[in-house]
């Protein structure tokens, strides 16, 4: 083993030492020093991992590779992010001893990937599908480590379904509560990375079915937004480059509260926000649009590929609009178009759950929000794909089922129980006392991503760095 490899592996273990104390229902918190705000207190593995910056450049590279397993697991399952790091580290530590004894890294990589595939084949045997509120509450409570919050998440998902809208926001009242309201999720993307708002309150919507070609067309509405300091959401199929540049410049320099979205769902967005669609069909060119033609939304959440609009009341145009879509669905030429129109109806008639998180301090509020965010993702996945026994015990069961004498099987068989052992250290429980359950999706994602990240690092033999 050369110097580069030793540095990479040290980085992996240093990252693991920081995040492993958070795993399990009774895992410890970590305080993150944020120079531009109050400290963040959390036990969310991926949030902590993202903030870890090792001073040694070469060790940092090793940690960054393993971070990817945590980040990918968060994207897929919303939970198990610390487990992915713990498992990846265990695999690397066992595998490097095998390399020392003469096994070839590429052979270990192939054998590990094969062993992981066989391990995942055993997962359905341990999976139980659930539908009852009590089971959902158990999953949510395990994830967020709070019975009241777990019950709230379960209630929200029982109402809206696994694919329904559950939005999170914060308040300064120190109260955490759940409300149901009208909510719609529609396809939309931001026109520039500079429009990086995640949430907007009491926003105006200007919606058009025309490409915005000149910033002059928007001046009356933009001036009103600056004067009133009301957030403005622009929705159009496209924008000229000069328009985006001007909007970004005014946003950065003048504090213009504006976001530009590209979307072909302009008609649906106009109806939901009660906006007048700016269109030649309505004899309304963009140059004549004013704030009187804008719609309103109480809460707006922006995601990479969709827009979530939360409204307090139903648009008076909605019933007529739905009738038109239903008529189009009846006349659709094929199943594809019927399915798309059916999805539009489902989105437009959805109920949204809004969880407002509040604690006495800002740090506690952010910590609680992260826990509830994980619980929502884990519980939704449990509704879709079922649950398994938690506490790391399912990893141990799969390890016992793995048979074979190839190097990949032996390494994975030794590594899988590492999650259970770390949870046991943090929580001081025994297998007999374990009554927690996890989403099966989490187990699948952890094994797949941990093995993938570890296998890549094991086949790395050199570092090229431009750092001075």
Oligomer kind:
single chain
Fourth CATH level, the homologous superfamily of the largest domain? GroEL-like equatorial domain
Average pLDDT over all residues: 89
Tell me what portion of residues adopts beta-strand conformation.
Answer: 15-25%
The CATH class label of the largest domain is Mainly Alpha
Number of domains: 3
Radius of gyration: 25 Å
The total of helices stands at: 17
Strand order of the largest sheet: 3-11-4-10-9-6-7-8-5
Distance between the termini: 24 Å
The CATH architecture of the largest domain is Orthogonal Bundle
Which tags fit this structure?
468 residues; alpha+beta; GROEL, domain 1; GROEL, domain 2; GroEL; 3 domains; nine-stranded mixed beta sheet; two-stranded antiparallel sheet; 17 helices; 13 strands; 51% helix
Notes on the protein architecture:
The chain has 468 residues and is α+β, with helices and mostly antiparallel strands. The protein has helices at residues 3-19, 45-51, 57-77, 81-100, 105-121, 133-144, 147-160, 219-228, 241-254, 266-273, 318-330, 335-348, 362-385, 393-401, 407-415, 418-427, 440-458; strands at residues 30-32, 40-42, 165-170, 177-187, 189-190, 199-207, 232-236, 258-262, 295-303, 306-311, 351-357, 387-389, 437-439. The chain has three domains: 3-128 and 386-458, GROEL, domain 1 (Orthogonal Bundle); 133-176 and 358-380, GROEL, domain 2 (2-Layer Sandwich), CATH 3.30.260.10; 183-355, GroEL (3-Layer(bba) Sandwich), CATH 3.50.7.10.
């Amino acid at each position: 083993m050369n110097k580069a490899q030793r540095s990479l592996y040290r980085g992996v273990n240093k990252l693991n030492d920081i995040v492993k104390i958070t795993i399990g229902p009774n895992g410890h918190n970590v305080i993150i020093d944020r120079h531009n705000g109050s400290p963040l207190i959390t036990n969310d593995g991926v949030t902590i991992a993202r903030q870890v910056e090792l001073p040694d450049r070469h060790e940092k590279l090793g940690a960054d590779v393993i971070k990817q397993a945590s980040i990918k697991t968060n994207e897929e399952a919303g939970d198990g992010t610390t487990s992915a790091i713990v498992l990846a580290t265990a695999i690397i530590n066992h595998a490097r001893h095998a390399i020392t004894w003469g096994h070839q890294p590429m052979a270990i990589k192939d054998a590990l990937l094969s062993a992981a595939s066989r391990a995942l084949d055993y997962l359905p045997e341990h999976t139980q599908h659930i539908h009852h509120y009590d089971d959902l509450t158990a999953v949510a409570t395990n994830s967020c480590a709070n019975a009241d919050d777990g019950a709230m998440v379960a209630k929200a998902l029982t109402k809206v379904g696994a694919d329904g809208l559950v939005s999170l926001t914060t308040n300064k009242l120190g109260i955490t509560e759940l409300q149901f309201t009208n909510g719609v999720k529609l396809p939309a993307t931001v026109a520039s990375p500079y429009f990086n708002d995640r949430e907007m309150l009491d926003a105006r919507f200007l919606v058009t079915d025309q490409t915005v070609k000149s910033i002059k067309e928007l001046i009356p509405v933009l001036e009103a937004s600056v004067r009133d300091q009301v957030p403005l959401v622009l929705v159009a199929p496209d924008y000229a480059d000069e328009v985006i540049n001007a909007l970004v410049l005014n946003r950065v320099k003048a504090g213009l509260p504006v976001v530009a979205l590209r979307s072909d769902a302009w008609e649906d967005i106009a109806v939901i926000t009660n906006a007048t669609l700016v269109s030649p069909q309505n004899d309304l060119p963009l140059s004549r649009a004013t704030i009187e033609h804008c719609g309103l939304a109480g809460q707006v959440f922006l995601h990479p590929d969709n827009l979530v609009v939360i409204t307090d009341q139903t648009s008076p145009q909605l019933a007529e609009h739905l009738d038109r879509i239903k008529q189009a669905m009846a006349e659709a030429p094929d199943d594809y178009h019927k399915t798309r129109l059916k999805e539009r109806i489902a989105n437009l008639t959805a109920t949204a759950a809004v969880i407002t998180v509040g604690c006495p301090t800002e740090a506690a509020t952010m910590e609680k929000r992260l826990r509830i965010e994980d619980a929502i993702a884990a519980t939704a996945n449990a509704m879709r794909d079922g649950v398994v026994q938690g506490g790391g015990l399912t990893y141990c069961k799969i390890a016992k089922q793995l048979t074979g004498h190839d190097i990949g099987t032996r390494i994975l068989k030794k590594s899988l129980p590492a999650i259970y052992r770390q949870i046991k250290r943090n929580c001081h429980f025994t297998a007999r006392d374990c009554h927690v359950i996890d989403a099966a999706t989490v187990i699948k994602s952890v094994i797949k991503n941990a093995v993938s990240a570890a296998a890549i690092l094991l086949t790395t033999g050199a570092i090229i760095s431009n750092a001075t």
